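Field reference: sequence -> structure
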Amino acid sequence: MFGIAFIGLLLHSRASVLKVDKTFVALHMPIDTSDVKNGINNLFLASVCGTNGAKLNPRALSFVQDFIIQNKQEMDEMKSWGHPYFKLIDGILNQYGLPTELKYLAVIESNLKPTAMSWVGAVGPWQLMPATARVLGLKVNRKVDERKNYYKSTKAAAIYLRDLYAELGDWLLVIAAYNGGTGNVYRAIRKSNSRDFWQLQNYLPAESRNHVKKFIATQYTFEGQGSVTTLTKDEATDQLSGSAMYVFNRKLNKEEQASAKTINISGKYFSSIISKYILMDETEFNRYNPDFDKVMASANNSYDLKLPADKMDLFVSNKYEILNESVQRLLLEADAANENKAVASISHK
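Structure field:
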């Protein structure tokens, strides 16, 4: 798998290595980092990518390589002690229909620490500024600072990320805006005449530019591969299959997004059968869940089903019956296909 090969390629050397204060010191001989870089470049040029199809942009190769070498031990330790935090964050991101890989933003913002505080006054695991936190519904005063509350601050961050994505439509631009504000992103778009992060990055403040690269590198460190959140919109459209691209095609306003519920499902479901059981017009169902039948018919048949709250309650209540009827239809279609093949075979004799 690419994840194993990717991390292994970065860290293997004929020399043993020891991490000291985020630097690696050879015990017997220096590491030939040129071989490591060449190896990564060869991987990319050979179109080796993660199991989900996401490729690392070549302009990020050097940064990601250096980041993994310097931070992998610390990140490996975080995988263990940070598990409860990641589980909580995943649940809330799922609730808001957001990619769970966004949890790595909290890693680069605060190292998952609820008491983290920046020199400009950002506080908590998501490093929210006081004014932003209040707009998102958090209490911030002399007695109470809900930015330090993991559950409440994660919900606030999810709302913020959801709204940024609704505005910008590109996860790399969202990460840049989360760090430096939408004003800086729009300024970079105007100056570069492009909405591609890799084209406009040099028009962003250096901190925001590097924030995006740290986010990408952190995900590669934890996952061994990228995802829709490490790609520009055009890269994602070009590289990812329909199983990951439907998130771009949801046509919901902020009120609909806020009131909807999301659960991940897998199996041979059909949109028409779900629509029948939840008493929802099929066109409306497909507006909430674009490409549903295409994704569920693919090998990677997993989907973040999003529905209005009352319709989701009906789905959960009738889930067994919906799946059972869907499977029965699938079997009937398979029988019909086999019968047609048999008839065609006979007619050619």
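Note: The two ends are 46 Å apart (CA to CA).
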